[in-house]
Design brief:
With 139 residues, the protein is mainly beta. It starts with 5 loop residues before the first strand and ends in a 10-residue tail after the last strand. It has one domain. Strand 1 and strand 2 form a beta hairpin. A six-stranded antiparallel sheet has the order 4-5-6-7-8-9, covered by helices on one side. It has a three-stranded antiparallel sheet with strand order 1-2-3, with no helix packed on it. The longest helix has 7 residues.
Length: 139
């Protein structure tokens, strides 16, 4: 099992991992959770030439206790099966620069509507699918 406590100090630009201060955090660095939200706003139009992926997006992400550059490679729209329904989605392949993680082939599928909701995540033999989307109005 993996457990880690991180405290972020945005003003100082630092992070404390399990009580130990680490170097400055580059501006725009995401946690895995914030990346799941932020990916929805990135320009993820696939390259016209698949052999020349000019539309890859690079983003700094904390993985463990270090900032790493993740590469997001968008693909063209595809159809996935979600709860027995065929749903159009965009595949985004993620490369972390960590060979151990990259061997697990991390991928995300986003809805094609304006919300760009993450519908599916896969990592190795694990798959997480969106089961329900519920709008909760502000109070």
């Amino acid at each position: 099992s993996y457990n880690q406590t991180v405290q972020f100090d945005q003003k100082a630009g630092t992070a404390t991992f399990d009580g130990k201060l680490h170097p400055e955090i580059p501006v725009g660095t995401h946690s895995i959770l914030s990346l799941a939200y932020a990916i929805r706003s990135f320009n993820l139009k696939p390259s016209k030439d698949p052999n020349n992926p000019v539309n890859d997006t690079r983003v700094a992400v904390f993985l463990g206790s270090d900032a790493n550059v993740f590469i997001l490679r968008p693909s063209t729209a595809d159809i996935i099966n979600l709860k027995g329904e065929k749903v159009p989605a965009q595949l985004v392949s993620v490369t972390t620069g960590n060979p151990q993680i990259d061997s697990l082939n991390l991928r995300v599928w986003l809805s094609l509507d304006e919300k760009r909701v993450p519908l599916r995540f896969t990592l190795g033999s694990y798959q997480a699918d969106l089961v329900e989307e519920k709008l909760i109005p502000p109070k």
